[in-house]
């Protein structure tokens, strides 16, 4: 899978999601639409970011950092 | 739901059914006729390289072969073998795959055979590979063989479909050791790091048959320390070890009684062994308590076994004989310093603290463990005969 | 209220059961065995205390705020600003935890069955199905649980029975060789799975028969405890000292089943069961995230958010850990503390504040 393919895949996925939600789009409130767009945007941004920087420290690394002293109790 | 028209319902039904087409997966879609089913796996050493022999099922001859009737005189198993060589096992598999047009499938490996040479150099890298592979089964039986593993897998047995199947069936009978890959892993990782694995040998072919039309049978038991084979014991001793390990499924014991000609043979119906470890003043003692229930299968003496006194005599003799066999086997492994009888585990369970102090030196303590065997035999049934047959009734001692 | 559906207390219990079990029988037994060795069967006993504690805290909080989910009442308890922060922590946590679950599922399927399939497709199709279930609402999830859980339980039970011929009870001896500590260490990871009973906080408000919530919550904890106990003891009896050497001990044990030479190769059933169970687990977490986000943003409906969140979930699952080894290591060391601090310690703090506030309010009322 080249990067271009992944980006294409993401675009297809986004299109499908938008198409799926179209019927409800008119009835939805402004706030809902905003949340929808922002969440989708976050996902896309993160996906593309991860595509180029797969080793980006994530939430798990944060958790690992915070709980390290406790985790050490269980390490052998 | 009532809003749906009949047409719409049909479409939904069709869509649900069409899902089945996707069940086989996309990337991992495998057709049965793209697979080469491996039934036996042999591991040899060729110089510094590993030589892998696989026994493959030839699909055409399995099952459908019966239709050809008697014309199929040539016999020949329904299997073929291929070999591959490489520096390590994975290399050898790659080499092997180059020679086989179908993808190797390891889910049906029945027997894994190591040559004695490999066994003596250490089997660890191989069994790690075997247990790591998600297709391979922990249930596969393990064997060591005299000579090359390739020769064992090459055989085309007259009765069963493949020599791997023969070996598996033989070990399922449990006359001698039956060891699966899981058992081997457990034994080698256990507290004593020793293992006993059946050793197979090729049975000389019957007269008039080709050299390959025979089988490999289990005859001895290979004894492993760490992951290396250090020696082997014969079938009689192996059974002695099985007695202590409480794994005897079938056994016959023949004894001759004092004051009577001929022998009595009894078959074991049920047996139970209990290891009672004792640790006193720095001395390790083990009491092996064996109780078995036997049926008489042959009585060539002139003693009637309907007499209580004779029964006791025979039972005592059988018990002594059992104990003697076990002592003999035990001496042998004690000399080898290989605790394949589970004494270490038994001590570990009862005296965990003391055990942990000596567990690194167990090798040296094991040969000096004082063993007492208390065997007890109970007759259950006399078979079909009441008194010994084939002699005039008046000669039978009642 | 965003969610208009109602479920029964039994359906809630049936939803919680796979939400704990589904992944607790994948990687966890190996982690428990690593610490506890032959005492691994004791660990679920200690671990279940966490479950009872979580249920107790959740029920007390529910008692104070019967119509509200955790996201809503944390605002009332901690004030608007801190409440929003706590709500965000919960949401992020459940999204993250669900990401871990999706990843575990993907790793399991790809590692054992579909070796060549890219994990993203395995996980993607699962998230898609879960998204559909979440859009269906709590009633749909409840009914799905009613359908799937009995099958899952039955199959697990059948596996245990089929393994009886291969069991060796001496594997559990000596009991507590090194004292009680190893078994407690082994309980740390499973107890964090038990802490996931806090998920009930999102379902209690939608119970049609709320008075039974307590009873069924406790039954659910007991059922999970019993299942883990039986699974651990089975695995220990079959695999003994080498349990910790397998990534998926339950899987390895089930693959070992062989009855009369023909009842073999049962791993397809394992897969079916786990796919069913994990589906419910992901769905329950996913639902909580979707519903919670909508409540957090004061939206009238959560359905619009389901697919964007699913996409985010998928990205998260990729982001969790670079390899299965790392994931397994995290689950064995830091993640358990993470899980229990968010799902037990944080709710406990909320409960204490709520108690304090309610006492004040009562005093005010008396004045």
Give me a quick take on this structure.
Chain B contains twelve helices and 13 strands. Chain B is α/β, with parallel strands linked by helices.
Helical/strand content category of chain A: mainly alpha
Low-confidence stretches of chain C: none
Instruction: Give the DSSP E fraction of chain C (strand runs of 2 or more residues).
Output: under 5%
Rg estimate of chain A, integer Å: 18 Å
Instruction: List the helices and strands of chain A in order.
Output: HHH
Task: Give the uncertain stretches of chain A in residue-range form.
Answer: none
Compute the separation of the termini of chain C in Å.
Answer: 33 Å
The radius of gyration computed from the alpha-carbon positions of chain C, rounded to a whole number of angstroms, is 20 Å
- How many domains is the backbone of chain C divided into? 1
The oligomeric state of the chains shown is: heterotrimer
Fourth CATH level, the homologous superfamily of chain C: Amino acid/polyamine transporter I
Structural class assignment of chain C = mainly alpha
Q: What share of the residues of chain A does DSSP label as strand, in percent?
A: under 5%
SSE succession of chain C: HHHHHHHHHHHHH
Explained architecture:
Chain A is mainly alpha-helical and 76 residues long. Chain A has helices spanning 3-25, 30-52, 59-71. Chain A has one domain. In chain A, α1 runs antiparallel to α2 (30-52). Chain B has two domains: 32-62 and 75-233, no CATH class; 235-398, GMP Synthetase, Chain A, domain 3 (2-Layer Sandwich), CATH 3.30.300.210. Chain B is built from twelve helices and 13 strands. In chain B, a hairpin with a 2-residue loop joins β1 and β2 (49-57). In chain B, α8 (235-245) packs across α9 (308-336) and α10 crosses α11. Chain B starts with 5 loop residues before the first helix and ends in a 17-residue tail after the last strand. Chain C has 367 residues and is an all-alpha fold. Chain C has one domain (9-353): Up-down Bundle (Amino acid/polyamine transporter I), CATH 1.20.1740. Chain C has 13 helices and no strands. Chain C has helices at residues 9-24, 28-36, 43-64, 70-112, 119-136, 138-163, 181-194, 213-239, 249-255, 267-296, 306-319, 324-332, 335-366. The longest helix of chain C has 43 residues, at 70-112. Chain C is globular and about 70 Å long. Chain C starts with 8 loop residues before the first helix and ends with a helix. The chains are: A mainly alpha (76), B alpha/beta (398), C mainly alpha (367). The interface between A and C is large, with 40 and 39 residues.
């Amino acid at each position: 899978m080249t990067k271009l393919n992944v980006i294409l895949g993401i675009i297809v996925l986004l299109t499908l999601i938008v198409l799926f939600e179209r019927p409800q789009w008119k009835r939805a409130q402004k706030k809902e639409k905003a949340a929808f767009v922002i969440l989708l945007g976050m996902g896309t941004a993160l996906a593309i970011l991860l595509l180029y920087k797969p080793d980006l420290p994530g939430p798990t690394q944060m958790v690992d950092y915070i709980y390290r002293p406790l985790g050490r109790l269980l390490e052998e | 739901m009532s809003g749906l028209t009949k047409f719409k319902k049909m479409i939904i039904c069709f869509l649900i059914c069409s899902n089945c087409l996707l069940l086989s997966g996309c990337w991992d879609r495998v057709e049965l006729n793209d697979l080469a089913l491996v039934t036996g796996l042999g591991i040899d050493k060729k110089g510094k390289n590993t030589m892998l022999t696989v026994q493959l099922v030839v699909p055409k001859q399995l099952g459908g072969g019966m239709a050809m009737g008697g014309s199929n005189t040539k016999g020949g198993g329904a299997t073929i073998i291929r070999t591959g060589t490489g520096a390590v096992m994975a290399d050898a598999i790659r080499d092997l795959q180059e020679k086989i047009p179908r993808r190797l499938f390891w889910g049906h490996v029945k027997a894994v055979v190591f040559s004695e040479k490999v066994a003596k150099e250490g089997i660890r890298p191989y069994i790690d590979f075997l247990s790591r592979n998600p297709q391979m089964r922990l249930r596969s039986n393990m064997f060591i063989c005299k000579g090359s593993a390739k020769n064992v897998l090459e055989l085309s047995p007259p009765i069963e479909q493949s020599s791997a199947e023969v070996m598996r069936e033989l070990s399922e009978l449990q006359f001698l050791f039956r060891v699966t890959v899981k058992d081997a892993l457990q034994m080698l990782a256990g507290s004593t790091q020793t293992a006993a694995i059946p050793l197979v040998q090729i049975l000389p072919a019957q007269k008039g048959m080709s050299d390959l039309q025979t089988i490999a049978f289990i005859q001895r038991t290979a004894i492993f320390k760490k992951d290396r084979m250090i020696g082997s014991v014969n079938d009689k001793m192996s059974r002695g070890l099985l007695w202590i390990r409480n794994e005897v499924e079938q056994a016959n014991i023949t004894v001759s009684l004092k004051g009577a000609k001929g022998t009595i043979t009894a078959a074991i119906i049920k047996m139970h062994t209990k290891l009672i470890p004792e640790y006193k003043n720095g001395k390790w003692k083990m009491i092996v308590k064996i109780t078995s229930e036997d049926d008489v299968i042959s009585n060539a003496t002139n003693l009637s076994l309907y007499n209580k006194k004779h029964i006791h005599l025979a039972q005592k003799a059988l018990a002594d004989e059992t104990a003697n066999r076990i002592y003999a086997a035990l001496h042998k492994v004690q000399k080898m310093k290989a605790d394949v009888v589970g004494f270490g585990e038994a001590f570990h369970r009862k005296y965990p603290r003391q055990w942990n102090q000596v567990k690194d030196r167990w090798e040296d303590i094991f040969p000096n463990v004082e063993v007492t065997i208390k065997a007890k035999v109970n007759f259950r049934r006399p078979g079909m005969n009441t008194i010994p047959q084939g002699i005039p009734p008046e000669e039978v001692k009642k | 209220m965003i969610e208009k559906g109602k479920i029964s207390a039994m359906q809630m219990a049936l939803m919680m059961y796979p939400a704990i079990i589904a992944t607790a029988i994948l990687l966890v037994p190996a982690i428990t065995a690593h610490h506890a060795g032959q005492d691994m069967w004791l660990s679920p006993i200690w671990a279940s205390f966490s479950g009872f504690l979580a249920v107790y805290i959740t029920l007390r909080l529910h008692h104070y705020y019967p119509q509200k989910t955790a996201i809503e009442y944390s605002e009332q308890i901690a004030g608007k600003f801190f409440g929003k922060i706590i709500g965000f922590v919960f949401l992020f946590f459940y999204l993250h935890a669900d990401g871990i679950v999706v990843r575990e599922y993907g790793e399991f399927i790809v590692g054992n069955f579909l070796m060549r399939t890219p994990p993203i497709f395995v996980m993607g199709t699962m998230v898609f199905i879960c998204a559909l279930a979440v859009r269906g609402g709590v009633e749909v999830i409840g009914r799905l649980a009613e359908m799937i859980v009995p099958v899952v339980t039955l199959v697990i039970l059948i596996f245990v029975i089929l393994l009886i011929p291969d069991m060796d009870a001496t594997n559990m001896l000596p009991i507590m060789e090194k004292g009680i500590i190893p078994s407690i260490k082994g309980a740390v990871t499973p107890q964090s799975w038990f802490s996931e009973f806090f998920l009930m906080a999102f379902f209690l408000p939608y119970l049609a028969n709320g008075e039974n919530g307590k009873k069924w919550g406790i039954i659910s904890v007991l059922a999970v405890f019993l299942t883990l106990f039986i699974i651990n003891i089975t695995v220990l009896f079959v695999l003994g000292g080498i349990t910790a050497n397998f990534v998926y001990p339950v899987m390895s044990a089930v693959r070992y089943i062989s009855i009369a030479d023909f009842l073999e190769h049962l791993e397809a059933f394992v897969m079916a069961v786990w796919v069913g169970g994990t589906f419910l687990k992901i769905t329950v977490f996913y639902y909580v995230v979707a519903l919670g986000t909508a409540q957090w943003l004061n939206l009238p409906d959560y359905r619009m958010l389901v697919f964007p969140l699913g996409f985010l979930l998928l990205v998260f699952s990729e982001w969790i850990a670079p390899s299965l080894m790392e994931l397994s290591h995290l689950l064995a060391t830091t993640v358990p503390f993470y899980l229990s601090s968010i799902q037990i310690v944080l709710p406990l703090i909320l409960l204490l504040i709520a108690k304090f506030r309610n006492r004040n309010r009562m005093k005010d009322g008396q004045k």
